[in-house]
Design goal:
Number of domains: 1
Shape: globular
Helix content: 55-70%
Order of helices and strands: HHHHHHHHHH
């Protein structure tokens, strides 16, 4: 009888205690998430938060801060920009233009912040933003190009170039306001200037291929059909 109680006591003594597992939760600590699971919260965002972020970057002010850093808004902005930039002068989508735009905008919005994060990590410099937050900032910085892209429908080359320049400047200012306090020099100057240069070059050549100059003859080698002279007129000429 006593041995049975001893065996039961040993069983409970040797059982792993759950107090250590819940101790962190009782102290207010959240369990650590592994892999991509820890980024799921960046997609759990209200539409109102995304709208507030877009309003903030469209009318940037000193001390600009996003209402929330998420990944849903940047994905929506990049997708919208692909289609708005591919809208031709006849208000029809060119699927070749969509492929070109998506082949640049999506990799740029993802790979540029990844490169920035990797360089800072390699240089062992302080990083105040994680990789998801950097992607969020770069994505929202593309929002000014959406209204700009609709102005490119106007087939005036000088106006298009001016609009692209102002749009790149606008987007770079947003990026600078959001990253200036988070990056050490000279990386913030380099990446902001790189953003301006790459976006300007892409939109400039993309616009030239999507919206051709109406003053340029698209078929310079085309031959002009000769005028048909009536036979009666030809005979009259020879007789004269």
């Amino acid at each position: 009888m006593n041995s049975a109680f001893v065996d039961m006591e040993d069983e409970y003594v040797n059982e792993p205690s759950t107090s250590s597992q819940t101790e962190g939760l009782l102290d207010g600590e959240e369990p650590k998430k592994e892999g991509w699971v820890k980024y799921e919260g960046y997609f759990d965002v209200d539409t109102e938060d995304v709208i507030q972020n877009i309003k903030s970057v469209l009318v940037p002010k000193p001390g600009l801060r996003l209402h929330t850093l998420d990944l849903y808004g940047p994905f929506w902005i990049a997708t919208t920009l692909v289609f708005s930039a591919s809208l031709g002068a006849d208000l029809r989508y060119d699927f070749d233009a969509i492929s070109i735009a998506s082949g640049f905008i999506f990799p740029y919005a993802l790979l540029t912040p990844l490169a920035l994060y990797g360089i800072l990590l390699w240089k062992q410099l302080p990083i105040q933003k994680n990789i998801a937050e950097l992607i969020s900032i770069y994505g929202y910085a593309l929002a000014p190009f959406i209204p700009i892209s609709f102005l490119l429908i106007i087939p005036i080359p000088y106006l298009q170039t001016t609009v692209i320049f102002l749009g790149s400047l606008w987007s770079s200012a947003v990026l600078g306001l959001l990253l200036w306090d988070s990056l050490p020099p000279p990386f913030k100057q380099i990446f902001i200037a790189l953003h301006f240069i790459l976006m300007f070059i892409f939109l400039f050549f993309f616009t030239k291929s999507t919206y051709p100059d109406p003053s340029v003859d698209l078929h310079p080698g085309a031959s002009v059909a000769p005028a048909i002279v009536p036979a009666s007129g030809l005979n009259a000429t020879h007789s004269a």
